[in-house]
Amino acid sequence: MLVLLMVLVFTLVLLFAFYLINFLLSIKDMGKNKISAFECGFVSVGKIQNSFSIHFFIMMLMFVIFDLEIVMFLGILVSDLSSYISFLMMFIFILGGFYMEWWYGKLVWVI
């Protein structure tokens, strides 16, 4: 227990030391060119408005969710035979979510 506490304290001290060294050695030039947006080498004129497509955000979110569910499937499939019930329940849940996304029209690739 003492060794674990020593490792924890050493890790926290090392983490704080690296953070402090990084803070002290970093360049703190907050000029206009440093904090402004880069537009092909020209100085930006006016307010820059970032357009963000919610459609692609939803597609990315669905990809991440289904990707994580596939990883969970792999964990279930390598275990014993009694876990197939939970596998089927999770699979039905995923198919239900996929059907709901299809029903609401969120799987359309054309904007």
Q: What would your notes on this structure say?
A:
With 111 residues, the protein is mainly alpha-helical. The protein is built from 4 helices and no strands. It has a domain at 58-111. It has helices spanning 2-25, 32-35, 54-77, 84-103. Helix 3 (54-77) packs antiparallel against helix 4 (84-103). It is flat and about 60 Å long. One of its GO terms (biological process) is mitochondrial electron transport, NADH to ubiquinone. One of its GO terms (cellular component) is respiratory chain complex I. This is NADH-ubiquinone oxidoreductase chain 3.
Instruction: Note the gap between the termini.
Output: 58 Å
Number of helices: 4
Estimated helix fraction? 55-70%
DSSP strand count = 0
Low-confidence stretches: none
* Computed CA radius of gyration, to the nearest angstrom: 25 Å
Q: Largest sheet at a glance?
A: none
Provide mean pLDDT, rounded: 77
Instruction: Tell me the β content.
Output: under 5%
Shape: flat
Class computed from helices, strands and strand pairing:
mainly alpha
Listing every helix as H and every strand as E from the N terminus to the C terminus, the arrangement reads HHHH
Secondary structure elements and pairings:
Layout: H1 2-25, H2 32-35, H3 54-77, H4 84-103
Helix pairs in contact: 3-4
